[in-house]
Amino acid sequence: MEYELNLVVILALVGAGLVSGFINTLAGGGSMLSLPALMLVGMPPEIANATNRVAVLLQSLTGSSGFNKQGMLERSAIVPILVPTLLGSLAGALIASYLPSVVLKPVLLTTMVIMALVMLFKPATIVPELGTEPFSLAERPMAWGGMFVAGLYGGFVQAGVGFILLAALAGGLRYDLVRSNALKNVCTAALSVVALGVFVARDQVLWVPGLVLAVGSMSGAYLSVKFAIRASQRTLKWILLVMVLLACGAALMSS
Predict the structure, then answer these.
(1) pLDDT of 206 over the 60 cut
(2) Does the residue 1 lie in any domain?
(3) What range defines the domain where residue 120 resides?
(4) What does the pLDDT average to over 186-200?
(5) Average pLDDT for residues 159-177, to the nearest whole number?
(6) What is the CA radius of gyration of the chain?
(7) What is the C-alpha to C-alpha distance for residues 23 and 26, in angstroms, rounded to an integer?
(8) How many domains does one find in the chain?
(9) How many helices (H) and strands (E) does the chain have?
(10) What is the tens place of the pLDDT at every residue in 59-93?
(11) How many CB atoms lie within 10 A of CB 224?
(12) Which residues of 30-55 are buried (b: 16+ CB within 10 A; e: fewer)?
């Protein structure tokens, strides 16, 4: 497939990656910027959706490493939450690889609207108070389903998956937002590996623009971890709400 890649486009992709990497690591919705940026290069939606996973994988690894170095990553929780997430991701990626791209927008919009309504009217459902003791998947079996759905959505379409993962981790398992973001980055990296494998097998990934976007995304993720460690829970909650509302607006305008 032919696509345009000159200095202006490279700088635009790095810039979009920087902002999207910061937003994705801290809350979610960064792909609302990176996906349109890739489509401006000349990619159809399904190719942009696949190529975007290169940057998402690398930014998630950067974010996970940063949170781990700060002692904010609950290592003991990683394996249990990855099992349903990866199973869902494989199913979602297979669905996205074969379904027409027109299906992506209504799924994204519906998800964002539901998330925004919950954040506005029942914020405690998503954001637990500081000091709340988190649950394990064994203690809350329904959270297993939440992680599977998050993986399913993430495999299907990357945009907005951070919100779904945060809803499952903070809302379902009651981790605070910093630790939820740390685990969210691990889950995103893992499901991105699965999804990327499917898209590569289907020859839907354009590596050069994907890696250019990743340069900015990894820088954004690094800066985001530094900010998240210093920010208050209240600040993180408002950032999350604003990003959900912006994601709803972006989805509405593009529909």
Answers:
(1) yes
(2) no
(3) 7-254
(4) 88
(5) 83
(6) 17
(7) 5
(8) 1
(9) 11, 0
(10) 999 999 999 999 999 999 999 999 999 998 888 87
(11) 25
(12) bbbbbbebbbebbbebbbbbbbbbbb
Other Cβ atoms within 10 Å of 217 Cβ, number: 34
Residue 241 maps to a domain: yes
Beta strands per DSSP E along 49-158: none
Q: pLDDT tier at 15 (50, 70, 90 boundaries)?
A: very high
The reported pLDDT for the residue numbered 224 is 94
Task: Please give the helix or strand (H or E) that residue 90 lies within, else none.
Answer: helix 78-98
DSSP labels, 117-169: HHHHH-HHHHSPPTTPPPPPTTT-THHHHHHHHHHHHHHH--TTHHHHHHIII
Whether 225 contacts 22, CB under 8 Å: no
Q: Is residue 2 part of a domain?
A: no
Using pLDDT thresholds of 50, 70 and 90, give the confidence band for residue 139: confident
In a domain? residue 202: yes
The model scores a pTM over 0.85: no
